[in-house]
Amino acid sequence: MAGTLTPSIRVGLLLLGAALAAAATLAAAQGAADPTRPAIGAGAAEAAATQDPAAATAGLQSVFIRKGGKSGALINGEYVEQGGRVGESVLLKVGENFVVLKGPGGKEVLRLTPGVDVRAAGGTGRAVQPMDVPAPEKKTKGKRQ
């Protein structure tokens, strides 16, 4: 039978086969899981029940510095303007990567990237604090005996 097919029919059959193969590949890809999507199903409900939602959103998440307007910050999932309240604390200052809160226990500094030092270019190895950021408290290690 292959000998009786004209060249144009052979080309058409080859194109049809390629189109069917491509369609099958697309159909299989649509069923594949997307690793960037959140889990949906029984496993997701169990995972959500075991997580503390407050812990997932705790702390400083973003700062908004406005010239000519009130600066603010996204703290614990809520937008707070400078002078506004976060629980029992008042937002005193908004910096490039930190905020200062004053509450019943005194002043507290929240950082966007806790534990990360900004270093000067040129390899001086000296930590630089942008925009008069309060220096982090030094932790002292106890002596071993």
Radius of gyration: 29 Å
Helix amount: 25-40%
Overall pLDDT metric: 75
Coarse morphology: elongated
Largest sheet: 4 strands, antiparallel
Oligomer: single chain
Distance between the termini: 92 Å
Write out the strand line-up for the largest beta sheet, numbering strands in chain order.
Answer: 4-5-6-7
Secondary structure tally, helices: 3
Low-confidence stretches: none
Please provide the ordered H/E string of secondary-structure elements. Answer: HHHEEEEEEEEE
* DSSP E strands, number: 9
β-sheet strand percentage = 25-35%
Broad structural category: alpha+beta
State the main characteristics.
3-stranded antiparallel sheet; alpha+beta; elongated; 145 residues; 9 strands
What does this structure look like?
It is built from three helices and nine strands. With 145 residues, the chain is of the alpha+beta class. The termini are far apart. The chain has a four-stranded antiparallel β-sheet, with no helix packed on it. The protein has helices at 7-31, 42-50, 53-57, and strands at 60-64, 72-75, 78-81, 85-86, 89-94, 98-103, 106-111, 118-119, 127-128.
